[in-house]
Amino acid sequence: MRNINIKELAKALNLSTSTVSRAFRDNSDISKETKDKILAAAKELNYQPNHYASNLREQRSKTIAVIVPELANHFFSQVIHGIEGVARARGYHILIYATDDDYEKEVSFIRHLHNGRADGIIMSVSGEANDHNYLNELNQQRLPLVFFDRVYEDIITPRVITNDYDSSFSAVQHLIKQGCKRIACLVINKNLSIGKTRMQGYLDALEKYNIPFDDRLIVDCTNSYKRNNVILKDMFKKLKPDGVFTSVERLAFATYYACQDLEITIPDQVKVVGFSSLEIAPLLNPSLTTVTQPATTIGVEAASLLFKMLEHPESVNVNEKIVLDSKLMKRNSTAVGTLKKR
């Protein structure tokens, strides 16, 4: 049986095409009885509404873009899951773009989205450059933007973040209470707001417990596992830390690999804690102590903010900042016991 078009359906029901169209858009100005009649006839006569054409007429793509630094990090996968649930409930699809922490890719994606491909953007930034003026073009073209997790402080737009300072302070404090006195802080980008905030938590925890600060123990790492392995093995050999605080998930794995190569035992010779949303963290050997962010909730909150901007822009505070709490999950990588010298 062939698909009929909207004109044929309207003629069969002796209704106008606009009335039929409003029934499929769930408009409130059409009675439930009429709507039910139209939907029943559509099913019987094999009518399929063309939502894409309708969206074009309304100048809406019914799509939102999600821009993340990477997909391998479980945190971002969970955030995307939260976003997708909110979007799907509103009849929207999501497009996912991974920048691989490449600023040029980020700029390219944003400019590509100006062509109407998406109605709004949810983004965790790359942070590889200080010039973010290209994002101001969004305001001129009225394309809503919400930041999450990693943000640009000089761009005014709603954002969803976690209590990174408090979480970092608690993680380093935990290492200190477990007997660590030479704690390395592993970072990838000290200049990004989230890197600065987590590093400040580290520094303030050392100060509170009167532990001397050694700037060599703040170790710049990269997005390359291979390069990080070299950097961290060099750090362990030269600086001999007894604790490691990793500011991002991949650096916790890099620490485990470097310790394995050097036959350094965790937690007897070095204790490790890091930001991670990995569900397998308890299954690692030893199980990894983590700062776990509420990733799915972050996605839900970010998507809800974006739809608020789309549906009720007059009610949105561009300075709105939602701060969610992370949890310190204590496991065997920081287990109590006497630290053994190497």
Automatic annotation (TrEMBL):
Gene3D superfamilies: 3.40.50.2300, lambda repressor-like DNA-binding domains. Residues 4-58 form the HTH lacI-type domain. Residues 2-41 form the HTH cro/C1-type domain. CDD domains: HTH_LacI, PBP1_LacI_sugar_binding-like. InterPro entries: Cro/C1-type_HTH, HTH_LacI, Lambda_DNA-bd_dom_sf, Peripla_BP/Lac1_sug-bd_dom, Peripla_BP_I. GO terms for molecular function: DNA-binding transcription factor activity; transcription cis-regulatory region binding. This is LacI family transcriptional regulator. It comes from Pedobacter cryoconitis.
